[in-house]
């Protein structure tokens, strides 16, 4: 064999070797791409699950917040009614004109209790009843004096 034939043979072997390496590289790249695609699919499914769970959590939070807001509005109505009851009591005591300082202190204590502790609606009702009882006792004690 002549030297140029050896050169062509070496080139052919090198070309075949390069082709084999290139094909193996393409197969390896294809495998890596498949693995990447699988990982991306899995991450996408996980992201969708997370989004769905987040949506459920947000919906539950919205429902909870709406419920809490309704309860706070109802509680506000109770306090407003209690405040109006205190106002009505003050107007009634002014119309009588002979309210004692004790009744006034009782109403003020009830008002402070309502503003400082929101969970004392029962205490307010109790103070109001005591104030009304005290006012009626005071008025009853005044009636015999006016008859004499």
Structural notes for this entry:
Keywords: Membrane, Transmembrane, Transmembrane helix. InterPro entries: UPF0478 (IPR009293). With 148 residues, this protein is mostly helical. The protein has one domain (3-147). 93% of the residues lie in helices and 0% in strands. It is built from 3 helices and no strands. It has helices at residues 3-96, 101-116, 121-147. α1 packs antiparallel against α2, α1 packs parallel to α3 (121-147) and α2 runs antiparallel to α3 (121-147). The termini are far apart. The mean pLDDT is 82.
Ordered list of secondary-structure elements with their pairings:
Elements (H helix, E strand, L loop, with lengths): L2 H94 L4 H16 L4 H27 L1
Helix pairs in contact: 1-2, 1-3, 2-3
Gross morphology is: rod-shaped
Q: Which percent bin holds the helix content?
A: over 70%
Number of strands: 0
Terminal CA distance reads 155 Å
């Amino acid at each position: 064999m002549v030297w140029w034939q050896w050169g062509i043979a070496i080139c052919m072997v090198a070309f075949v070797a390069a082709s084999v390496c290139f094909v193996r590289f393409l197969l390896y790249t294809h495998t890596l791409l498949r693995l990447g695609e699988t990982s991306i699919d899995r991450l996408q499914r996980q992201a969708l699950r997370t989004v769905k769970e987040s949506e459920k959590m947000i919906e539950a939070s919205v429902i909870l917040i709406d419920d809490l807001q309704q309860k706070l509005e109802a509680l506000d109505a109770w306090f407003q009614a209690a405040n109006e009851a205190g106002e009505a009591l003050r107007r009634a005591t002014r119309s009588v004109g002979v309210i004692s300082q004790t009744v006034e202190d009782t109403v003020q204590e009830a008002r402070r209790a309502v503003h400082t502790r929101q969970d004392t609606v029962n205490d307010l009702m109790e103070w109001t009843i005591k104030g009304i009882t005290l006012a009626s006792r005071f008025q009853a004690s005044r009636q015999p004096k006016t008859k004499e």
